[in-house]
Each structure stands twice: as structure tokens, then as C-alpha cells.
Specification:
CATH topology of the largest domain: Rossmann fold
CATH superfamily of the largest domain: P-loop containing nucleotide triphosphate hydrolases
Shape: globular
Largest sheet: 6 strands, mixed
Oligomer: single chain
Strand content: 15-25%
């Protein structure tokens, strides 16, 4: 479902501020893979997601989604294949619009717009059913402005919006990092449910090692723009945080430097 081949990206090339963010990155995801991504500061995690999303073009290498080479396809066209949830709960939604209106926009993604009533009665009923699955009481608040929701509620709605059209690939960029632990756990529970029920191929960046181990069927660790650890199946299930730290040191020859991950 995703194939990244020899991806390279250097920012500010030829200057004293040159930074190689991706260094010959190779990654293949099968249909339905749920991959958690962890790494030290500046490992290239978000750069990889932004490259997949088309925020910027790589200097070299290719990106394929479901067999289609999207390397040179612009970001707005590439969105047809992707769903994305950001770290900031304020992104990904229109805060001054109602929950129902936000879901309606997501439901019409990739289709031509016409002048007609935005939301039909049948759609409202469908949105109520979808919101009820979140178990956050939002099914009774269709007319509430999204900007008035809590961070956790907003991320849950954003998850629904990102997956409403069943994307080929779901990108989760530390989507629980700005939430308190209890709310983060609830959003991760919702994430697992949506990904499993819809059989979505997913890449989830997280700074929390326990979450990286507990969620998904595969775990990759990045360092200096490439993958240094790739674990799945039973081996992943039996991992501990100490195991991950040791694997990083063994593969990179350095101490793990992500303060948030260590503190988590």
C-alpha cells in the first residue's frame, strides 16, 4: 500500500545550516499494516510524513501509494489517497463551523460541489451514528461549533473526518501529544477501533514508547533520516521500553535523545 524507495531530503543545501532529514529512506507497508514510528530528536519522522503527504518534494527517491507513483503529484491531488491527523487539535477542522458541517465537508472530499442544501436529513442521521461510536456524547451535539470542543473531542472528530472516505493511507502525526494522559488513552482507543474496523493502512508517529509498543502490528525506529529498527508480530508484542532503548543504542551507537519519549 506504501512503498518508499531511497528517499532523500536535505534542507538548506550548500549552506552552513544544511540538514539532511531523510537519508536513503526505504519503507514498504502492506495493506492493513498499522505501523508505529518512534525516534530521537530530528530523526526524520515528521519529514517522512510530510514527504508522503506532498508538503515538499524529495531531492531523490520515489513514493508509491497503492501502486501509483505520487512523487511528483502535488499535495492537493495527493490528498485523494490520504487521511491525516495533526498533533495540534486546532488543525484539521473548521472551528467556526458545526460538527455536522465539518463531517459534511469530509464526506464530500474529492467530489464536485454544487449549490444545494449542504446536509440532508439522512446524512445527519448517519453522522449521529458515527459520532455515537466515539462514546463521547457528541451525537447529541451536531450543531455545536467544533471550536468549542475539548482537545480530545476535537481529535476524535478529526479522526472521523480523516477516515470518512476510507483513505488508502492514514497518517497520524503525534496526534495525542497535546492531550492529557487520560484523554490521549481514549483517543488511542478510538484510533485502534477505527483503524481495525476499516482495515486502514496506518503510520502513527508517537513520542511515547509504551504507546508505540501497545498499538499496531509493527514498530519502526528512525535515526538520522533512516530506519534502524523494524519489528513486528510476536517480537513486537514481547517488547519492553528497556528493550527499545537497548535496540536503539545497539543500532545507532548513541544514547536515545528524545526527552519526551524518555519522560513518557
Amino acid at each position: 500500500m506504501l512503498k518508499i524507495t531511497n528517499l532523500q531530503k536535505t534542507f538548506n543545501p550548500g549552506t552552513v545550516n544544511a540538514k539532511t532529514a531523510l537519508n536513503g529512506l526505504n519503507l514498504t507497508l502492506e495493506d492493513g499494516d498499522f505501523v508505529t514510528v518512534i525516534g530521537g530528536n530530528g530523526a526524520g519522522k515528521s519529514t517522512m510524513l510530510n514527504a508522503i503527504a506532498g508538503v515538499w518534494k524529495p531531492d531523490y527517491g520515489t513514493i508509491e501509494i497503492d501502486g501509483v507513483d505520487v512523487t511528483n503529484i502535488p499535495e492537493y491531488k495527493r490528498a485523494t489517497y490520504l487521511g491525516r491527523v495533526f498533533q495540534d487539535p486546532m488543525k484539521g477542522t473548521a472551528p467556526d463551523m458545526e460538527i455536522a458541517e465539518n463531517l459534511s465537508i469530509a464526506a464530500r472530499r474529492g467530489t464536485k460541489r454544487k449549490l444545494k442544501w449542504g446536509i440532508k436529513k439522512a446524512e445527519r442521521e448517519e453522522y449521529k451514528k458515527l459520532l455515537a461510536t466515539l462514546e463521547l456524547g457528541l451525537e447529541t451535539r451536531l450543531s455545536s461549533k467544533v471550536g468549542l470542543l475539548s482537545g480530545g473531542q476535537r481529535q476524535a472528530v478529526t479522526l472521523l473526518m480523516a477516515t470518512l472516505k476510507k483513505p488508502k493511507l492514514l497518517l497520524l502525526d503525534e496526534h495525542t501529544a497535546a492531550l492529557d494522559p487520560k484523554t490521549a488513552a481514549k483517543v488511542l482507543e478510538i484510533t485502534d477501533k477505527i483503524v481495525t474496523e476499516n482495515h486502514l493502512t496506518t503510520l502513527m508517529i508517537t513520542h511515547n514508547m509504551k504507546d508505540a509498543i501497545a498499538h499496531g502490528n509493527r514498530l519502526i525506529m528512525m535515526h538520522e533520516g533512516r530506519i534502524i529498527v523494524d519489528i513486528k508480530g510476536e517480537e513486537k508484542k514481547n517488547l519492553t521500553v528497556e528493550d527499545l532503548m537497548n535496540l536503539f543504542v545497539k543500532a545507532s551507537g548513541k544514547e536515545f535523545t528524545n526527552d519526551r519519549a524518555v519522560l513518557s
